[in-house]
Amino acid sequence: MTNKLLLQRLEGVRQALVALFESSTKLSTHTDVIGDEREIFVSHFLGQILPPQYRIGSGVITDAQGKISTQLDIVIELPFTPSFSFIASTPRVYLADTIGAVIEIKSNLKGYLTGAKQGNAEKKLITGSGNYEPLKRLERDVMVVDSKTRQLMKSKTIPAYVVGYKGQKKDTLRKHLNKLNRVGKTEARDVVRGILQLEPPIFVGSNDKNEEGDKALGAFINSLHWELHRTSPLSWPNLPAYFGIERDVEN
Predict the structure, then answer these.
(1) Would you give the end-to-end CA distance of the chain in angstroms?
(2) Cα 240 to Cα 133: distance, rounded to the nearest angstrom
(3) Taking the CA atoms of the chain, what radius of gyration do you get in angstroms?
(4) Which residues of the chain have pLDDT under 70?
(5) In the 3-class helix/strand/coil scheme, how is 190-225 assigned residue by residue?
(6) Other beta carbons within 10 Å of 71
(7) pTM of the full predicted structure?
(8) CA-based, 20 to 30 A from 64: which of 107, 162, 211, 245?
(9) Structure confidence by residue, pLDDT tens digits, 180-205
(10) Is residue 113 within a helix (H) or strand (E), and if so which, with residue range?
(11) Containing H/E element for 93?
């Protein structure tokens, strides 16, 4: 059973996001609109959809072993966790154990995913190394609900998503998602949970499910909601490991 009212509302939101983005690109020569694709997505979508206890920012992530990610567009923190930014407007430094998900926002997935300006674009996309290599090396230590058994299990990977306003065909997006996650190889790691494209609307998930049209945005929301809410409230960052201090004696 499909709730037509909700799908209509989501389709209106999607159209508004694309319209705002296209309007901003016409002013792209002005420095004050650079990066609008991120701000539009956060202000007019994520900020309205997610509960207020989720802090949304940008910055780099580090784990207890000292590995560091690249600068990330959108970082969604788990509730009641610390992050570190002591000077206003500077990028935050996040602890891997405190992150619910990260999102990379791009205006056009075609250029972003291929990383090439000429030649066979799809071939280069499929054989490319991807943009999440530093994130794949990070390890978080939290307890999450297993999607199949519904039992608690340890999660080492930080869920990541790619969102683009325009770009590719469904089959090409699927091939690239599989490439990012090294599907079929010994080093396979389910880091990128999905790719959302707003125009034309497509969502491909790491669970091999695809949604198009007015269901694409709903599929993205469902996937992101699951990743954020499956984390056990009993999980908290092992701060002594990060700071190199002695762990408090447990009572």
Answers:
(1) 50
(2) 27
(3) 19
(4) 27-35, 88-89, 111-131, 248-251
(5) CCEEEEEEEECEEEEECCCCEEEHHHHHHHHHHHHH
(6) 10
(7) 0.89
(8) 162
(9) 888 877 777 789 999 999 999 999 99
(10) helix 109-114
(11) strand 92-95
